[in-house]
Input
Amino acid sequence: MDTLIRMQEDLERALEKPPEKRRWAMLLDVRKCVGCHACTVACASENKLPPGQVYRPVFEYERGQYPAVTRTFLPRPCMQCDKPPCVKPCPVPKGQATRKEKRGASAGLVVIDYAECIGCGQCVDACPYGARAVDEGRNHSDGTPAPQPYEVAASFEYGRKRQRNAKADPVGKARKCHFCVHRLQEGMLPQCISSCIGRAGYFGDESDPKSLIAEVKKASKVQVLKARKGTAPRVYYVASEKLEVIYG
Amino acid sequence: MAKKNGTSRRDFLKTGAIGCGALAISQLDFARGILARAEAGELTAKELYELAQVENQLFTVCLNCNTGCGIKVKILDGVAAKIDGSPYSPWTLTPHLPMSEPLSRAAKVDGAICPKGQAGHQGAYDPYRIRKVLKRAGKRGEGKWQSIPFDQAIGEIVNGGKLFAQVPGEETREVAGLKALYALKDPKAFADMGADVAALRKKKMTVAEFKAKHAAHLDKLIDPDHPDFGPRNNQFVYMWGRKKGGRSDFSKRFYEAFGTANFHGHTTVCQGSLYFACKAMSEQYVGDTFKDGQKFYWQADLENSEYVVFVGSNLFDANYGPPNRTPRITQRLVDGKLKIAVLDPRFSKLASRAPGSWIPVKPGTDAAFAMGMTRWILENQRFDAKFLANANKAAAAADKESTWSNGAWLVKLGKDGTPGGFLRASEIGLKAKEVRKDKEGKEYDFEWLVVLKDGKPVAFDPNDEKEAVEGDLFVDAELPADKAGSIRVKSGLQLMKEAALEKTIAGYADLCGIEAKVIEEVAREFTSHGKKAAVDMHRGPAQHTNGFYNISALMSLNLLVGNFDWTGGMIAASTWNTDGSKTEKQPFPLKKLSPKVGKAFGLSIIRHDAKYEESTLFEAARYPAKRNWWPLSSDVYEEILPSIADAYPYPAKALFSYMAAPTYALPAGHTNIEALTDLERLPLYFASDITIGVTSMYADYLFPDLHYLERWEFHGSHPNMPVKVQPVRQPVIASPNEVVKVFGEEQPISYETVWLALAEKLGLPGFGKDGFGPGQDFCRPDDLYVRMVANIAFDGKEPVADAGAEDLRVFQASRRHLPKNVFDQGRWEKICGAAWAKVVTVLSRGGRFDTQEAAYKGDHVANKYGKLINLYQEKTAKAKDAFTGKPYFGAARYVPVVDTLGREPTALAEGFDLHLITQRDVRMTKSRTITHSYLTSSLPENAILVNGADARRLGLKTGSKVKVVSATNPEGVYDLKNGVKKPMVGVVQVTETIRPGIVTFTVGHGHWATGAADVTIDGKVVRGDPRRASGIHANAAMWIDPHLKNTCFIDKVGGSVSFYDTRVRLVPA
Output
């Protein structure tokens, strides 16, 4: 069975549980990441990201000297930290603009409420992973003869249908990866997982011991990025190299 | 016209030839639709993620490279909003969903495709697409255009005349139209003259005799003194870049009716020598000669292999292709179930995923590595002797083998010891020639072949299924001839061994720039996994002047272990048939539905399938020939335009190019610009493209084509795919192109529309009303394609299942945004008749795909090659080098990189310290992905990769700007003509991931058209997008052959262009 099918079955099972009983997590086995950047582009297309904005970059590293050289491809989504440094500096009263969500399909994820966000960029500066950026309202067709219809076709972030418009959300607001919660609630995997040609990505409810992600996590030695920052990320990595040395 | 989900056709027509304005209207309509539905309370929570709804999805096939991944296009209000992998396609899920899975399940499952596929809709919604016919309003390539009515363009191309009188300098230039070239029409005259040209070639008729016999038709020949040039019809040349089934059937119908011998693809710019070496290896012994070789190749069955040697096989960035091959190996590499070796001067992504696998051989030395392995395997008895002893089908079957080789067959040697053809049993009086009958009762001569068995000659029939014959493997003997004297013979394997012994393993290793023990270790490992080991190769070894022999040497290693058709070994592609020639049940046998037309004869302008020595040009010119002749290869892309420029063997009058970008894609591509701007040698040039492209910018007339999301094709398969398939590309969105009438039928201008309109104007048989026979019209693209889908549905033992009620409902609902000139259910149903419900099944799944389970049978693949594979190539040995007159060697061998006259290019290399190669990045496909902003955002420009040691020596750092210069391009520019030169300047990236002395760049950037440059249309300037001009394209630095003078270095045997043989210098810029 393709791991994509297996994980989708896991996902359907997880959705039957009450939100507080499941724990969304992502595991990236960088030994299988082939640096194709499909996740980066799939995410940009799915979430209608303007040029320059990337939720899910894949960083490339090269180490060593010819011919004893290694390459590492490191995908970096939002870590959906359990101790998110980005939430605290939000100046919007009661922390409404960005928060660790407790309800619904996005329970456990760090979300941005575009309606509340004022685009001040404080959360952007606070994220140690550089996972956030303010949407500057650019379009892919800028500087060309005409805007294109796919650019204004709707996106569905956070389960809300929005057409791209210079004067409407999310333009001017902080944006970041949300594990494609709009897909999760439909029983579909995040775009970066479903577009992974190396099958390096795992996603699911890690509290379900029968889920593939729980199995892989248990069987592997996992790492997290910037462990010393104490952010408690929900994105785990499996790698032959020490990612701390490469990324921090 | 009624508005349908957005923009009406008329809205589009209001705009200019390149889109402005109309989209603003479409946005408004779109927004209004949403608002209305929201106000009506129609947007329920469950419906919100409309992309996942079954009525908003259509399944088709990607074309952002040639892999052909099945895609699921998610459509919002008529707009392709998102693309993912189709779960029905074995390219995007392993295993894929069977076709029996309902659409509702598939709607929620996205398969994985590469970034180019993900970005695909940006190619459809490209602000620089052309929508109307453009006619040149300035010099060729000057960027000045006038939009004209479609019918006017067709009329001018057919009728000719002073077509460019408004362009300064061309006031009096008279252009011959296609009507004048459609000279010979009588099928009988075609047949008679064609037969006599064949006689002329075999010296059974003289030119004088030919002229006397065909006096009535001599005026229709290009040159009566050279009847082998054929009729004037041959002066219409058609060439194409990427074209798949369906569109190829469309054009075939035209050029066959027109009667030209000039229809040439682009194979040799990809990996021609891989195709043509495998064609030579797949030639079959029929009667007394070799024929029916397939233009194809084999690849490894990766999901079952235990050990694979990848040679120039850039698996995770290119090849066919990343989404299907990658998931079949990443986990197995991690688990240690698959071991690999990667031969590549670059530490590719593939090598990087398997520590210890990298073997950084020097470019062009692949055959040296292979022959070193061959030598070790033969000397250490590590080959499959049982497999190699089998001389025929019956012997193979007895060993549960489905393929067999000719390694044991006896080859005759010439007086000087040169190996020639196989020994026929009649030549030693062993068994006489006999007359046999084929399936249709036609008589033919059959000659027995010979092996030695325990030292005694045994006659055999290679295709015999009953009497098994095995032979001795290594034979060097003298046999008494039938009449008198004796014949010296050697077995194929003996010849292979002698070729392998030409150098020591240390000598081979030295050529590769590696240690001898590496060759031995790989050879040992390769022969330690039984049939589950493979040598998998792609364009790396093929695109050199020695490509044919690199491939022959590498592929022959697979014969030494006899791994063909075995799980984990080498496998071949398998597809469902489209033309109705496979089974009785297929409803539309297209060949039978064609009128009788004359069979084209005469030389093609690229001189393929022809021997120089048999031509009327030979006696006067002798050796070396002016240009190459290609008895073993076809679709020799680099020959087309330079041959037109040289008028060799004859002048061309008109050229049509489709999806072709030779100026960009070919090494020394600028030489093609020289040819395209030569009004005398190329009087008329028209092109089909979706933008003003890097080559089509030189056209006289430019016809807008459809994007791949708007059109049909049958993509076929690739040799790494064990599942039997036929992916169907079909229109999933409307086209923005101008709608015109051809044969009375409305259709957006497309590639097909051009052919149809030309056929209508010329009055070609087999088109228009009753084109497929009484009551079966051929007036629009779908008239052909829907019939082909029906054929797919009915191929095989069992046809596909009928679509159920839900499938039929979804079929219609999901196409609600398509205009009638694209999709008309009534029209399609009428064409299909009883086949309709099966056609719906195929179309609603984006093709026909067998199940994963059906792909294997025990330890073999189910879809077998199942034939002879040549270790020794008789046909190759009987062909001669047109420059030296020497016969080609017919087996694996290491030969060095040379120019056409056989000289090693030491003089050209002198003073140029770096060896230039190129590579693919998974985010770019040559000339067509620069228009995709998701991709250019991720990879804004490419770089020139330089090893750290070279960088230090040259004082270069990452970010340094350098110009690429070579002996044949000392200025370091792409000369675009009209006074425009694009410097080949790029940014250096210092890296340890490349062998010192080698430099490379990824192909896809450095454009000068396709929206990168300003153009003037109808007097208005359309500004280019600088993002599209970024980066470097250094193909013009690649060497020009010193004898040909207007063409890159070539592989004379297999046709490939040389991409990886040039030496350059990097000059700070």
User: Anything to note?
Assistant: The longest helix of chain A spans residues 3-15. The mean pLDDT of chain A is 97. Chain A touches chain B through 66 residues (CB under 8 Å). The helical segments of chain A are 3-15, 38-46, 122-126, 149-152, 181-184, 191-194, 212-219, 243-246.
